[in-house]
Design goal:
By secondary structure, the chain is an alpha+beta fold. The protein folds into three domains: 229 residues, Jelly Rolls; 145 residues, Jelly Rolls (Sandwich); 179 residues, no CATH class. Helix content is 23%, strand content 24%. The strands form seven sheets. Strands 2, 3, 4, 7, 8 and 9 form a six-stranded antiparallel β-sheet that branches. Strands 10, 11, 12, 13, 14 and 15 form a six-stranded antiparallel β-sheet that branches. The longest helix has 20 residues. The N and C termini lie far apart (53 Å).
């Protein structure tokens, strides 16, 4: 019988958010009292919070203090957001230019992801991997920026703030205002760069804490502020990022903004795992999912997903069949409105749209879309590619139709269309040598991160490896933020330091791509819970070999070209893999 070591089972707040700073930056009890006396926390109804998850405990454990000097870059456009910020004192500036004219990458201190050298790659055979993901600053950057070390933390800063303010358009965020909350809650990249102007103090709250503040506060103090801030600061940027609204004049954009409707559907976080909700939707013909649009009805609005996931379905015999999913940033309804423009009879919605669990969206009424887009266009073409690159487009074009209908049905019914890096194995070429599994083990300290097994369609297997979904629902209920997107490539990874083994991510994953494994110490002793002596577990999954020199080791190790990583939203890639 193997030797064991007893430890207490990790809990959510064993690793307070402040402990992730170096040195830790917690708020004292006196400072927590002061926070509770200021807006928006003094406007909350504390009675709605659980005893084990009180308002005070959330502020104490899910927040940390951030102090900034003039020019410090706080968040950068394109980084994946895991937290939101409240300005306590001083002020910060937000870049409000469109992406193509905003701060250049060099001014933000960006650099290519650091891969291991050839020697480091070879050394993995006898050496453990280095510490978890870290970020370093390149020295080959814009001369207008610098780096400084404060309290052991390296920070990028703008050396000449006045010249940056003169050259680029920015807006002021003052004390009592939030920023970064949209990316944190929506698990999406930051849409703007924010930097401090003068000495600034911020409260940073990880998204799990912000989620709970919004979930349990009956007065909706933060929820109302988030909606107001989005309309005031981010709505124009959100709309301008949509291809259908490119080139709109400021006057028409203002008209669009004035008529936007904010909608939420479902409960913020259902106690049921997402996978159970999805399964329950199929079993009950989606009756438990909030209906947003219904197939065959008049198209009264264009629908944009801000956060969450929506299901598109069509009538099939006496029930419904899933036709696709909408993820954050995608839209639906424009093609119907455009196709019916100028005709005597409107083109109805082709699909029903339902919210799976909680969904936040914006709607733009049809008459507003027609006014700002069509009235001024003498030769509008509804099939123009500039208008549909972000909207839901089913497999209907000539190029996409090359993919067999049976395969399309399989991909949709199994929700593989979410995958941006789906592992597909051609069983006609695979010789079952398991070189892919051994290569994965070598790259991860002798611990393979996937199983060469999974659903099969024809001669293709869809292995139980992380798909790195467009909207990773595995992150929805992680209490500690242990599963997150890395800052660079956006791959979904798991931090061993903060995973408490609750298995919420594994339960939510619809693809069985996350495994719960027993953990040991460096001597091989099994680590058990000191209370019940049961082995402790942690979640593991494919991280696309994010630190490896050559990328995914599994794919590189396949000598028969049987293993592919496929973006299921790229029709050309689907053709290359499945129709050849």
């Amino acid at each position: 019988m193997p030797e064991t070591i007893s430890l207490s089972r990790p809990k959510r707040w064993d690793y307070p958010f402040s402990e992730e700073s170096n040195p830790p930056r917690p708020f004292t009890d006196t400072e927590i009292d002061a926070l509770l006396d200021m807006a928006p926390f003094n406007e909350m109804d504390a009675s709605g919070f659980r005893k084990s998850l009180s308002l005070r405990d959330i502020l104490k454990n899910d927040t940390r203090r951030v102090t900034c000097q003039s020019g410090d870059i706080i968040v950068r456009r394109g980084d994946w957001g895991h937290s939101a910020f409240l300005v306590l004192s001083g002020q910060v500036r937000v870049d409000i230019e469109r992406p193509e004219s905003s701060f250049p990458p060099s001014l933000l201190g960006r650099k290519s992801p650091q891969r291991r050298t050839l020697f480091e790659s070879i050394a993995q055979v006898w050496k453990n991997p280095p510490a978890p993901e870290s970020r370093t600053v390149s020295h080959d950057v814009d001369p207008r920026i610098g780096s400084r070390n404060k309290d052991g933390e390296t920070r990028i800063f703008l050396q000449d703030v006045p010249s940056v303010l003169d050259e680029y358009r920015t807006a002021v965020i003052q004390p009592g205002q939030w920023f970064g909350e949209l990316a944190a809650l929506g698990r999406t990249p930051r849409t703007a760069t924010v930097f401090s102007e003068g000495q600034t103090e911020l409260l940073e709250i990880r998204w799990q804490g912000l989620r709970d503040l919004m979930r349990y506060d009956k007065n909706k103090a933060i929820t109302n502020e988030v909606e107001s801030a989005f309309r005031e600061r981010a709505l124009v940027e959100f709309l301008r990022n949509e291809p259908m609204f490119h080139g709109l004049s400021d006057q028409k954009m203002e008209q669009l903004v004035e008529n936007v409707e904010f909608r939420t559907y479902g409960e913020y976080d259902s106690p049921k795992p997402f996978k159970d909700l999805a399964k329950q939707g199929h079993e009950n013909n989606f009756e438990n999912e909030a209906l947003i649009f219904e197939e065959g009805h008049y198209p009264n609005a264009v629908f944009f997903v801000r956060s969450g996931l929506a299901r598109l379905s069509v009538k099939h015999h006496h029930g419904q069949r899933t036709a696709g999913y909408l993820t954050p940033g995608q839209s639906y309804g424009f093609h119907e409105i455009a196709s019916g423009w100028g005709k005597e009879v409107a083109v109805p919605y082709r699909y029903s749209v339902r919210a799976i669990s909680y969904l936040s969206a914006i709607l733009i009424p049809t008459h507003i879309v027609e006014t700002v887009l069509f009235d001024s266009q003498t030769s509008f073409n509804p099939d123009h590619s500039n208008f549909d690159s972000q909207s839901f487009v089913p497999f209907t074009s000539e190029e996409e139709m090359a993919v067999p209908d049976q395969l399309v049905d399989f991909l949709v019914e199994n929700r593989f269309i979410q995958g941006t890096e789906t592992m597909v194995i051609d069983l006609d070429r695979c010789v079952r040598c398991d070189d892919c599994v051994r290569a994965c083990a070598t790259a991860h300290d002798n611990n393979p991160r996937f199983v060469r097994h999974g659903p099969v369609h024809g001669h293709h297997m869809f292995a139980n490896a992380c798909l790195h979904c467009a909207d990773p629902v595995c992150m929805v209920e992680c209490p500690t933020g242990a599963i997150y997107r890395d800052f660079g490539a956006g791959h979904v990874v798991i931090s061993e330091n903060s995973c408490i083994g609750c298995a919420q991510c594994a339960n939510n994953c619809p693809y069985d791509a996350i495994r719960m494994v027993q953990i040991t110490d460096q001597q091989g002793h099994v680590i058990v819970d000191e209370k019940n002596q049961r082995p402790l577990t942690q979640a593991t999954k494919c991280d696309l070999c994010i630190e490896q020199l050559g990328g995914p080791a599994c794919q590189n190790a396949c000598s028969h070209d049987a293993l592919f990583r496929v973006n299921m939203n790229d029709s050309q890639t689907l053709n290359d893999v499945f129709v050849r």
